[in-house]
Design brief:
The chain is an alpha/beta fold. It has 17 helices and 33 strands. Among the domains are: about 180 residues, Rossmann fold (3-Layer(aba) Sandwich), CATH 3.40.50; about 45 residues, no CATH class.
Length: about 725
């Protein structure tokens, strides 16, 4: 049975407003997921939006199947690759486009199987993608998500790219691996080509939607700048906001965040720390523009050979990292629910050849956490940090970080240019953020930061105006720490700092001249109300050396002291978001931390009520703080299902709850005393299916894809 229209109208609140008087409905979507399958009882995900994946002959039917079950319908389709044979083989415009398949130096085409290539987008590729967008809109999509515009740095040898080079640079194509300048120019062109293609789609979607009397938003689902740089991929990232992008999905998950990096000479997976930096960079990307940002989480990941225990630990790590960015409250809760709830993977210490479906416990935990994600929009007054290091610190990054990642003189393959500055701070609980250099000139953007770290080892400033903005920020009171040995061979490429009337050997020297400093100042330099501290060392070298992290922290402490900033570190990051506590203890912590109160730990599928939480180093937790709900009782504090139409009537409570088929529904109601009666769909709940204690009424029964009406009288 489909969700009723009344329930559908109410479901977008996800019980976010509860009170005796009628509350205004908040219809802003906050939860989504993507799927290539039609609706199925095992895919009945708690979400507002179903992103139907791919434009195929079955798209309209798949959309209808999700719409019939109460979901807002969006569409997601690939940008870099897909089943785009109509374009490849000339059925779109009568011209064969196989010369646009991304090709490596040895002639290998990059792709995903037969006739599915990563595209080197030609002038008409955006027009082709627009025909897919038109079909999606005609089929009923209310918004579009264009996924992963990706150009591999190893490519750039395809015939089409060579022609584009000549048209863009007005000079013969150069082998990207022949010199740093050729590599940089190759990546710069790749960046332009995907921006051009997406600009065409954004323009078409806006105009076609208007012709239908609709405002169709167009978003981009993309990995972070940090991950693309690490993996050797070029994507237009920040520039998409200038050509019509309405926002992003930050595709950060275990698969990106577990990529190994160096800290103090030790190479290891640092899933939580890397995810924290990735989510922070993506959130920073839209702060100045006010565009939408959704954070992706993934309870599994693309690699199907890990164990369920591995997936679960790393999902909790990335999820916690995402929740420590309190400005974002919209979440893609998962991609591909079919591979999560209908997939099979190894178990810890199990037979190598055996695979198993998801456990009942993990299903309960996932649904309880998703329920909480729908309630993460909180007023600023309800958000505060309990533990963290010095706030307001950032590491400046530019999209050009992607431009130096291939060839014989490529930058550090472990991305030590960035991680060498950022990881030492995260490792000690300083909530440092990757700060988009391209936005530095936007009014008020840099005022969010008291200290910025900068290196042009591995990246370059795309425009001279950005140096003027940085200089103004320092003069107004900012503390700038520059770590750069000037040895990057890319300093010598033909760019604005060494062409025309400019004759600087490095872009750093141009910045220092604007600050009124010599090229190699010694010690702390006072500039206006701010300070500059320069150290002539490569951050990549620091990342590979024992003691490198402590050197970075010492530089920050020195700069902070000179600038009057209270510099302190923390063994943990602990954040209150309304009734939720998000906590992460860093691996570097010497001891566990303890929290005392009245909590429901959502990473425990039993959803117990506890008064004392001990968090060991390298562990995370998401808690419901029951003390924060005292003024709202009775109310739903936690639920492993989708709770809608939650209403108090005097001292009584009612709501509807639905969930994934073949899972258990656990509902925890914060209340002052035990109930007089509990009805589920008009029938009394058995004595063994509810209990009361520690100020919580606990209900448990089988989940249903159809909302079950729960009525509790006290």
């Amino acid at each position: 049975m489909a969700i009723t229209l009344l329930t559908l109208a109410l479901c977008f609140t996800s019980a976010r407003a509860v009170g005796d008087a009628p509350q205004p409905e908040d219809t802003e979507p906050r939860l989504s997921f993507q799927s290539g399958s039609p609706w199925h009882p095992r895919l009945n995900i708690d979400a507002d939006v179903a992103m139907v994946y791919g434009v195929t002959p079955t798209t309209e039917d798949r959309m209808k199947s999700w719409r019939d079950h109460g979901y807002i319908i969006n569409l997601m389709t690939g940008v870099a690759w897909g089943e785009y044979q109509d374009y490849l083989f000339g059925r779109f415009d009568g011209k064969n486009h196989e010369d646009e398949a991304q090709t490596t130096r040895d002639g290998r085409r990059l792709g995903h199987g037969k006739d599915v290539y990563y595209m080197s987008p030609g002038p008409t590729y955006g027009a082709y993608l627009s025909t897919l967008a038109k079909k999606a809109i005609d089929d009923g999509a209310e918004a579009l998500y264009l996924e992963e515009p990706e150009f591999w740095t190893a490519a750039g040898y395809e015939p089409h790219f060579k022609l584009e080079w000549q048209q863009y640079y007005h000079e013969p194509w150069q082998d990207p691996e022949s010199s740093p300048e050729a590599q940089y120019r190759s990546s710069k062109l790749k960046y332009f080509l995907y921006r051009r293609a997406l600009a065409d789609v954004f323009k078409f979607v806006r105009e076609y939607g208007q012709s239908k009397g609709k405002n169709i938003k167009c978003y981009v689902a993309t990995h972070s700048l940090i991950n693309y740089s690490d993996w050797g991929i070029v994507s237009p990232e920040s520039s998409l906001l200038d050509v019509g992008c309405d926002g992003y999905i930050a595709q950060v998950w275990t698969g990106t965040a577990r990529s190994e990096n160096f800290l103090d000479g030790v190479k290891a997976e640092r899933t939580f720390e890397t995810a924290f930096l990735e989510y922070g960079q993506m959130q920073n990307l839209v702060r100045a523009s006010g565009r939408d940002m959704w954070f992706l989480n993934d309870p599994v990941e693309d690699n199907a050979h890990h164990t369920w225990a591995d997936y679960r630990f790393n999902w909790e790590s990335t999820l916690t990292a995402s929740l420590l960015q309190p400005e974002v409250y919209k979440y893609e809760t998962m991609p591909w629910p079919e591979r999560i709830f209908r997939g099979y993977y190894p178990v810890e210490n199990g037979p190598n050849a055996m695979r198993y479906g998801i456990s009942l416990e993990y299903q309960t935990e996932l649904q309880a956490v998703i329920h909480a994600l729908g309630r993460m929009k909180q007023p600023a007054s309800a958000v505060h940090w309990d533990q963290r290091g010095t706030p307001g610190a950032g590491v400046l990054v530019s999209d050009t970080l992607m431009f130096q990642r291939a060839g014989p003189q490529a930058s550090d393959p472990e991305l030590g240019q960035f991680f060498g500055l950022a990881l030492p701070l995260v490792d000690r609980g300083v909530p440092v953020e990757a700060v988009q250099l391209e936005d530095a000139g936007m009014s008020g953007f840099l005022s969010n930061y008291r200290m910025l770290l900068l290196s042009y080892d591995g990246q370059k400033p795309p425009r001279p105006e950005l140096h003027a903005a940085l200089a103004d920020w320092v003069k107004a009171g900012g503390a700038l720490v520059v770590v750069d040995d000037d040895q990057d061979p890319y300093n010598r490429i033909r760019e604005w700092w060494n062409t025309g009337d400019n004759h600087d050997a490095t872009p750093r020297i141009d910045l220092f001249r604007r600050l009124g400093l010599p090229s190699a100042p010694d010690g702390v330099q006072h500039v206006g109300k701010g300070i500059v501290l320069y150290d002539a060392v490569s951050p990549a070298t620091l990342s590979h050396n024992e003691g490198g992290a402590e050197k970075v922290r010492a530089l920050c402490a020195m700069a902070a002291k000179s600038a009057g900033i209270d510099w302190h570190e923390s063994p943990a990051l602990v954040l209150h978001r309304g009734p939720y506590i998000v906590a992460a203890v860093l691996p570097s912590a010497s001891d566990a931390i303890e929290l005392t109160g009245h909590f429901i730990p959502l990473f425990d599928p039993a959803l117990p009520v506890v008064n004392h939480v001990v968090l060991r180093p390298n562990h995370r937790q998401l808690l419901v703080d029951l003390d924060k709900l005292r003024d709202q009782q009775p109310c739903v504090a936690a639920a492993s299902g989708r709770v809608v139409n939650e209403r108090r009537d005097g001292g009584n409570l009612s709501f509807a709850v639905s969930g994934i088929a073949d899972t258990r529904c656990v509902v925890e109601v914060a209340c002052a005393g035990g109930p007089a009666s509990v009805l589920v769909d008009g029938k009394p709940l058995g004595d063994g299916d509810w209990s009361f204690g520690d100020g919580v009424l606990r209900l448990h029964f089988d989940n249903s894809v159809d909302p079950q009406r729960v009525e509790i009288k006290f």
